[in-house]
UniProtKB/TrEMBL annotation:
2-[(2R,5Z)-2-carboxy-4-methylthiazol-5(2H)-ylidene]ethyl phosphate binds at T136, K137, S138, G168, I188, S189. Pathway: Cofactor biosynthesis; thiamine diphosphate biosynthesis; thiamine phosphate from 4-amino-2-methyl-5-diphosphomethylpyrimidine and 4-methyl-5-(2-phosphoethyl)-thiazole: step 1/1. Its EC number is 2.5.1.3. It comes from the Bacteria. One of its GO terms (molecular function) is thiamine-phosphate diphosphorylase activity. PANTHER family: THIAMINE-PHOSPHATE PYROPHOSPHORYLASE, THIAMINE-PHOSPHATE SYNTHASE. It holds the Pfam family TMP-TENI. It comes from Carnobacterium antarcticum. This is Thiamine-phosphate synthase. Keywords: Magnesium, Metal-binding, Thiamine biosynthesis, Transferase. Its cofactor is Mg(2+). Residues 8-191 form the Thiamine phosphate synthase/TenI domain. 4-amino-2-methyl-5-(diphosphooxymethyl)pyrimidine binds at Q37, L38, R39, E40, K41, N72, S110, K139.
Length: 210
C-alpha cells in the first residue's frame, strides 16, 4: 500500500459522531483525509439493511474524492460492496482466507506485539495499524497503551513496511507518532468530535511536513 494513503487515516461509525455521520465524513474528505475505514461497532450501531445502506453512502462519497474505502472486520460486506479493502484484528478472519476471496484488495491488520507484526507481514498484509499508542476512549475493549517506544521498535523490525499509528492520537501528538516511525496517523474522535473538522484535518496533515 502507498504509505501516503496512511497520512491521515480516518475511522468512523455512526456511534462515534457528534453530528450527522455522513456530514462528518464529507467534511473530513473535503479537508483532505487520505483513507477511510468504516467501523460500525458498539452500542446503538446500525445493523442489517440500514448498515448496508450507510456503508454504501460512505463508499460513494469516498469514491467521489478518490479516497480508499476500507471496511472493518466485515468480510461479507466488504466483498458485497467491492470495497477497496478490509481491516482485521487479531481475533478476526485469517488474512489468507480473505486474500483468496478478494485478490488485489487492501488488507490491514491490527498489531500489538512483535510476533503479531511478523505474522501480519508473512500473511500478506498491506499495512499494519499499531496501537493503541496512547490511552483511548473510542474502543471499550482497547488494550493498554503500547507507547512510542514500541512503535519505534516495530519500525526497526519491519523496515519500510507501511505502518499507521492508532489510539489516542491528537493534533498535538501526531508529529511524535510520525517521528517514532509511523507513516501516518489513524484517528476517530479527534475528527468526529471536532468543532472545525477542516482545521483539525489540516493540522494533522501539516504535521507530516515537519
Amino acid at each position: 500500500m502507498d504509505c501516503n494513503r496512511l497520512n491521515v487515516y480516518f475511522i468512523m461509525g455512526t456511534v462515534n459522531c457528534k453530528k450527522d455521520p455522513l456530514k462528518t465524513l464529507e467534511e473530513a474528505l473535503q479537508a483532505g483525509i487520505t483513507c477511510f475505514q468504516l467501523r460500525e461497532k458498539g452500542e446503538g450501531a446500525l445493523i442489517g439493511a440500514a448498515y448496508e445502506e450507510f456503508a454504501r453512502a460512505c463508499q460513494k462519497m469516498c469514491q467521489s474524492y478518490q479516497v480508499p474505502f476500507i471496511v472493518n472486520d466485515d468480510v461479507e460486506l466488504a466483498l458485497k460492496l467491492n470495497a477497496d479493502g478490509i481491516h482485521v484484528g487479531q481475533e478476526d478472519l485469517a488474512l489468507s482466507t480473505f486474500r483468496e476471496q478478494a485478490k488485489g484488495k487492501i488488507v490491514g491488520v491490527s498489531v500489538h506485539n512483535s510476533r503479531e507484526m511478523k505474522q501480519a507481514i508473512l500473511n500478506g498484509a498491506d499495512y499494519v495499524g499499531i496501537g493503541p499508542i496512547y490511552r483511548t476512549k473510542s474502543k471499550t475493549d482497547a488494550k493498554p497503551p503500547a507507547g512510542l517506544p514500541f512503535l519505534s521498535a516495530m519500525r526497526k523490525q519491519a523496515g519500510n513496511f507501511p505502518i499507521v499509528g492508532i489510539g489516542g492520537i491528537t493534533e498535538e501528538n501526531a508529529s511524535a507518532v510520525r517521528s517514532s516511525g509511523a507513516d501516518g496517523v489513524s484517528v476517530i474522535s479527534v475528527i468526529c468530535h471536532s468543532k472545525d473538522i477542516k482545521q483539525t484535518v489540516e493540522n494533522l496533515l501539516l504535521e507530516n511536513i515537519n
